[in-house]
Amino acid sequence: MRVLVLGADGYLGWPTCLYFSQRGHEVAGVDNYFRRNAAADLDCESLIPAPDLFRRAKIWEDISGKKIKVHTGDITDYGSLLSLFREFNPDAVVHYAEQPSAPYSMINRDKAAFTLQNNLIGTLNIIYAVKEVNPDCHIIKLGTMGEYGTPDIDIEEGWIEIEHKGRRDKFLFPRQSGSLYHTTKIQDTDMLWFYVRTWGIRVTDLMQGPVYGLSTEETDTDHRLMPSFHYDEIFGTVLNRFIVQAVAGYPLTVYGKGSQTRGFLNLKDTMQCVYLSAVQPAEQGQLRVFNQLTELFTVNQLADKVKKVGDRLGYNVTVERIENPRVEKEEHYYNVHYTGLLELGLNPHYLTDEILETFFTITDKYKDRINKEAFFKGIKWK
Ligand code: USQ
Prior knowledge:
By secondary structure, the protein is an alpha/beta fold. It is 38% helix and 19% strand. The protein has a 7-stranded parallel sheet, sandwiched between helices.
């Protein structure tokens, strides 16, 4: 397959390029370096000093003999996206090229507007490029479990059958997110569904929970191939933050009561999920939705696990419950269905003490780069 990865410089994008390349596919990656630049502006740079895409592609070629074509480009610029599609003619496009942070989208109006513009126009441009160049191209879109919010009923895998006044129909599962960023993901899903119905394109929308981890088979081959990794309040996800906080001797920042439950997955499993979706594509005229997670945890459970393993390794981990800067339910029902990816062949890496230990060991190598100021700036939802 020819696979185009949009957002190739990111935490998920770069390991995805390697994963497909290692398995014999032709890969092209594009990034506009938004996150690198935003992180530099906001003083919250990646823990791991990742070389730029051109240098990383060269390192990968030297190690594996495999070529990844890389481009610097912004997918909100339709002209350049279209030329890329024409030149590479992908069979599948993996779309990570979004502003991915809930706190970033809540900083102020400008950042909210940027998030809307970047995420929605980017998605629209991909849809148009697919239609114009190859309507058979499979769009694999990173959505988020946060689209559903925390409803008081079971969360189905994308769709729900509703019986109303004696008649039945199938709809997208109701969505009610908790940030402007997550709202743009709902809008993406709606837009994709519109064009699936109207133009018959093929789309897989992956409702992913927070990802953790630092290693994949390919990134482990050389430290210069490791992904960018954020632990700050804006771009870091909760478990990644907790590990770095523990290594730095900073109290784990549990927001509010800490009973918020989310569906988590290992970085290695994100790779599997995206790959399995690509090699077993959606049909034309199908919006296929998977809930992409392997386990449910509350924030408190994660803090307990990190404390237990961290203490055993000699870190003396402390936990602090701080006032929740977000508006979210801290105690809620959460029962999610997530069998679709398992049926495609996902073989999960669950969060064991051993996995946490390895995570501590890798993080510790970079502890001199930890900027404690980045752990908590207090970006409030209101
Ligand atoms: N949390 C804490 N302490 C922290 C950081 C977070 O208690 O220091 C809590 C949050 O309040 C929230 C939960 O942990 O209840 C998850 O927060 P998060 O920052 O790990 O994840 P979130 O902001 O929801 O966003 C992340 C990714 C986003 C992805 C999403 C999946 O940044 O791109 O879409 O995870 S999900 O959460 O399922 O929507």
